[in-house]
Amino acid sequence: EAALEITARYCRTEMEQYGQCVASSPASWQRDCHQLRLSMSRCAAAHPIVQQIRRDCAEPFAAFEQCLRENQAAVVKCSEHVSAFLLCADRV
Fold this sequence. Notes:
80% of the residues lie in helices and 0% in strands. By secondary structure, it is mainly α. It has one domain. Helix 1 runs antiparallel to helix 3. It is globular and about 35 Å long. 17% of the residues are buried.
């Protein structure tokens, strides 16, 4: 939750738009939400705390993204990956 709170604090609009897009496009979110993801990434890249979380938690985040790619129609299967990333982020 800490990582999401930090990202939300600095990039709330971008994060909300991306989240809404993913939720509304379960089968095609990767294509449909690509630009919003880039926007959120650019925003997060501008903040040192978010950069440190992304750097220190790159492995669990990459595993989460891989899970999303493999389960595009059932993203709920990736909850363990989200938990691992958030646990890492809490330690930063």
